[in-house]
Amino acid sequence: MNSYPEDEKYRDSFEGRSVLITGGLGFIGSNLAIRLVDLGARVSLLDAMLDEHGGNMFNIKPVQNQVDINFSDVRDEGTLKYLIKNKDFIFHLAGQNDHVLSRRNPFPDIDINIKGTATLLENCRKYNRDARLIYSGTRGEYGAAIVLPVSEDQPLHPRGIYELSSMAAQQLFQIYHDNDGVRSITLRLTNIYGERAQMRHNRFGVANWFIRLAIDDEMISVFGDGSIIRDFLYVQDAVGAMIASAATDSAYGKVLNVGNDQASNFKELAETVTGITGSGRWAFTPFSPERAAQEPGDFISDISRIKKLVGWAPSYSLDQGLRKTVNYYRQNKEFYW
Ligand SMILES: NC(=O)c1ccc[n+]([C@@H]2O[C@H](COP(=O)([O-])OP(=O)(O)OC[C@H]3O[C@@H](n4cnc5c(N)ncnc54)[C@H](O)[C@@H]3O)[C@@H](O)[C@H]2O)c1
User: Fold this and answer.
1) What is the structure's pLDDT at 2?
2) Is the pTM here over 0.85, yes or no?
3) CA neighbor of 244 nearest in space, from 178, 314, 194
4) How close is the Cα of 22 to the center of ligand 1, in Å?
């Protein structure tokens, strides 16, 4: 029995189909892999297991005997040429996503997020134009919001190299879609939290880091006065959006926000997390110069386009998603700390 009954309506799109997930041992990729296996897809994962990123073999424990794993790099043309052949869907989640690192060294973002994406697309153009591609972009491409909620039509003003590289990757997808018939969708994801994310450092994944500190009964630092708003989204909702979008023909060629119309501020996040764990404390602290430089302020995604086109909307409240996440890490702490 599928643990996600809402996926059942997409079974016909995925059952018996070949799917490649780049970055498939990471946070979002592994959760996606588990649900696609449940839907009867034949799933291959590509992951370079980069240091300090989210790749973790334990992430795919529930399906480890039902997926093919390729420890390889998305920039490796030879591997990609082979792996993309005969794939029906390719979810591109391999990426350098450490925003703090990208301020110190721009080249991994440029090399992985831009060159890696171009390598994937060029191979699809040459060897598999029938594949349908789904790219996980970031809300960071918008930079500071001009109007809330932020729709896909707002201008893009990325504030860092990570965000810039994601924007360039999205535009590469669009160019190959328009010029070469390599069909793709870009999903601009908001802040995602949930099970199977890395928990070793706090350079990305702020909501998950709050959970780690609370479970360890430590102090959570809430930057500024805690009033900055985010539309935090539970990972199973984000994966649901990917599955639903990939199965919707009319979504190809589009950019769609994947966020939450229920927003919370960081003070509420800290209070909810510590309320659920019953441990940990929180206090306000000034922004570090690095964090301040990249902080775009309040952000809420306008998700009306994906609701209308794909029929997807979030199903978990912040409290429900955080409870599931806390339970997962309490049970599996040894594999993540
Ligand atoms: N988590 C979020 O809140 C969020 C928000 C917006 C966008 N995204 C994007 O979604 C994607 C997945 O993010 P995640 O949170 O699952 O991160 P993650 O670090 O958990 O997973 C990314 C995976 O990609 C792998 N990888 C990195 N570079 C690679 C390369 N060159 N070749 C092969 N594998 C490589 C890593 O080893 C890791 O397992 C990223 O592109 C990220 O920028 C994530």
Assistant:
1) 65
2) yes
3) 314
4) 9
